[in-house]
Amino acid sequence: MSSANEHVLPQGAGYGVGIGLFFSAFMVVLTAVQARYTGFSPKSSEEFNSASRSVKPGLIASGIVSAWTWAATLLQSSAVAYKYGISGPWWYGAGATVQVLLFAQLAAKLKLNAPYAHTWLEIVAARWGTVAHIVFMFFGLATNIIVSSMLILGGSATVTDLTGMNTIAACFLIPLGVAIYVVVGGMRATLLCDYTHTAVLFAIIFVFVFTVYATSPKIGSPAVMHSLLQAASEAAPVAGNAHGSYVTMRSKNGLIFGVINVIGNFATVFQDQAYWQRAIASRPASCVKAYLLGGLAWFAIPFMFSTTLGLSAVALRGDPAMRILTPAEVSAGLPAPTAAAALLGKSGAAALLIVLFLAVTSATSAELIAVSSILTYDIYKKYFNPKATDGQILRVSHAMVALFAVLMGVLGTIFFYIGISMGWLYEFMGVVLGSAVVPIAVCICWKRANKWGSIGGAVAGFCAGITTWLITTSALNHGVVNVTTSGGDLEMLSGNLASIGVGGIITCVTSYFWPENFDFDTTRAINVPSQSEPATEQPLDYTADHEKKRHEVSSETVSIASEPTEEDELDPAALNKAFKFAAWSSIILLVVMLLIIPLPLFFAQTIFGVGGLTAWVVIGMIWTFFSAFTVVVYPLWESRSALKLITTGIIKDVFAKGGGKFIVAGEASKA
């Protein structure tokens, strides 16, 4: 890419990725296979919105990894690696992993205190009433809007840079293509999509990793990478880094980014319905396991991707194929696609485009189904039609998916025209959203949480965050407040700290001095199925011993075994035990990832030699292999019975003329 006006790929490649109709068609076929051969049909609102609450931990973990892999995960992580060196990937990865690990505690409390809720806002409404419901709905929808805008901004900027595709067209075509399979397949299709995306994502990451650190004639080994980074730091030392080096954890600006990253991502995990949706869809017995596995597996993606392409963008400065990047292009997340094209030419650009498409569409599908659930259950059903039938809920859910897909395109276009990039929005999200983190957590977990203190904390923290951010921007930039000046590290840090700090302090202080004594039986009663309702469909996990108990297909009895029902798994003692395990394990991992590993390296001002960088890279590779096994191989193993069932059904359809259709016992006579 020798000039900014040249594009590595033809414009048609951009439109092909933007539309994504092939992938939508693939997911529609998967949904049809699921409906025919497993008995799960997205024609039920419960299946559409929560996958019948029956998904096992491997697939949930894969879904968490996929939903948490935004455009920013690949692009922003590489941008901070480009700016700060090896500390950037660590602070990006660790600073956004601990929230998912800690969310395991909320997932356990959700199953204990509101096992039949569809959204986290239903719990807020049941506990604290309408005012709290509306206040926290603002934070919930603001989270979805900011996350969605980052997805569209990052995706469209990269597609435009690599192909020359019209940015506005990319803003609209990306979400609309995804909306097709979400409407058709619902939550389970989203999880299947997540799994498919995650598998391909890891494959392409391995291609880049082994190219850069093993086979590339331009780099080819950690030793060459080290020498190129040292040369780059001598030519242009990194401000705030020990000796201006790229191979040190002693990075002042990297640490500041780490704090911003931790605060902002607490907001986008705890307040994003997409994460609650996966907890709701999971089996009660395994939701904690899924979040711990998913969080640890996800870390490898931004860490290894940016340690590879972000550092390569620095190492290849001066290479004829590597163009010079402006600060605006770095903020837009372009170091990764530029490095990919410089390393592998058109094939590298195409691989990057595919991996970005997968990241953007999987995260977009998570946001679409999440917002659809909030608009359907927390606005339509709560305020407009409390007695809505299953069919009405399903129709509204479909309409809301389509509506938000269009809105995502509009938001991306607005931010593009006013000059706000993905990087700016990524650091800003904690300023707006951080104040509600502690109030939401205590609402789900703590019976003593004070209603008005929590509402007041969220609102006051929001105001404090915005005010502090603007005052700091004005003070540090001689009264000049604009998009450029307000996006500085210290400006964003002050707003993030004020938002989460004020919100958390007010909530905790009022709850300590004026505690409530809430009975969670109120939230446990949310959406409890009546005895007259048919039992929830059984999950796709069956054992051969119980084949004859539940289902028949055609003239033969098909083995589909029932594991313990959801009610059996909602044992309070077991869920409390799961919560304690989640608490201890997540807090230990938080301390290790945010304190024990990075801070000694920071304060020691260690500059890695060749051996140190090699060890750093090799450990990242090993972690990535284990992550791929966890979220690609493990889900196949745990779903082996369901895969066998589907295979059997397809074979019967081929050789027995329609004899493979799944029929629930008692309905065979209707078939």
Judging from the principal axes of the Cα atoms, what is the shape?
Answer: globular
Mean pLDDT over the full residue set: 83
Distance between the termini: 61 Å
Strand order of the largest sheet: 2-1-3
Instruction: Please summarize the sheet with the most strands.
Output: 3 strands, antiparallel
Which ranges are low-confidence, i.e. pLDDT below 50, for 5 or more consecutive residues?
1-5, 532-562, 665-671
Radius of gyration: 25 Å
Describe it.
There is one protein chain. This protein is an all-alpha fold. Helices cover 74% and strands 1% of the residues. A hairpin with a 2-residue loop joins strand 1 and strand 2. Helix 2 (21-38) crosses helix 28 (640-656), helix 5 packs across helix 15 (335-384) and helix 10 (222-235) crosses helix 13. The longest helix has 50 residues, at 335-384. The relative contact order is 0.17. Mean pLDDT is 83; it is low at 1-5, 532-562 and 665-671.
Summarize the structure.
Helix 4 crosses helix 9. Helices cover 74% and strands 1% of the residues.
Task: Give the key terms.
1% strand, three-stranded antiparallel beta sheet, 671 residues, globular, 3 strands, mainly alpha, disordered N terminus
List the helices and strands and how they pair.
Blueprint: H1 11-19, H2 21-38, H3 45-50, H4 57-68, H5 71-84, H6 87-113, H7 120-128, H8 130-163, H9 167-215, H10 222-235, H11 252-270, H12 273-281, H13 287-315, H14 327-331, H15 335-384, H16 390-417, H17 422-433, H18 437-445, H19 451-476, H20 483-486, H21 489-513, H22 521-524, H23 547-550, E1 551-553, E2 556-557, H24 566-569, H25 572-596, H26 598-603, H27 610-638, H28 640-656, E3 663-664
Antiparallel strand pairs: 1-2, 1-3
